């Protein structure tokens, strides 16, 4: 039954108050007004009829009481509400993971080699060209920068000394001097430069125990800004030759006036 019918029955049951005396009176009136039947024998008494009426009345009261008690005590039926299923997680949805604690500590210093070329000179030649004292070097002067090195093609009988010259401004005068100390069997086999050969006067001389190469810029010529290389080639006595006493010097003129740089060469390994 639905909730409305259940509510009405419950209200009627609670309001009903059975009147026992009234019911018994009605039963007795019914019994007294009943048509008289054939007279029973004197040995028969009417108690069974009264007993049946009493039992019927008691049965009616009992049934009514049970019905009222059932309606009053039984709680109303609750409509069943279907449980809402939990929404499944979307496939492929990542689940958060706890982050790993970061271990604190000082950051290691960056020990990567510097990409900026060092302007520190190689060990200067003792008594070499342009040296004011043994071991001195001056590889940069304003817009002019220089470096000396032994060519990789050098061997136990022959060698080539390179001078790299960089300038950020044009030069109107230039004298390059390369001094190769006589260590035994040193003899020039030639020279070259990356600038035009017609722009320079080249000489090779033996002076004070050294073979000296000189490149002199001719009047009216100009050395443009950029990087240029000068090289002297020579034979020497068999074996590993020490270049620590060799040296170079550059004297030039530019927009800011006179410029000079000098230095040495990395020893042969």
TrEMBL record:
Keywords per UniProt: Membrane, Transmembrane, Transmembrane helix
Source taxon at top rank: Bacteria
Region feature (Disordered): 1-21, 27-46, 76-146
Parts of the chain that traverse the membrane: 50-72
Stretches with biased composition (Low complexity): 100-137
Protein name: Uncharacterized protein
Taxonomic lineage of the native organism: Bacteria, Bacillati, Actinomycetota, Actinomycetes, Kitasatosporales
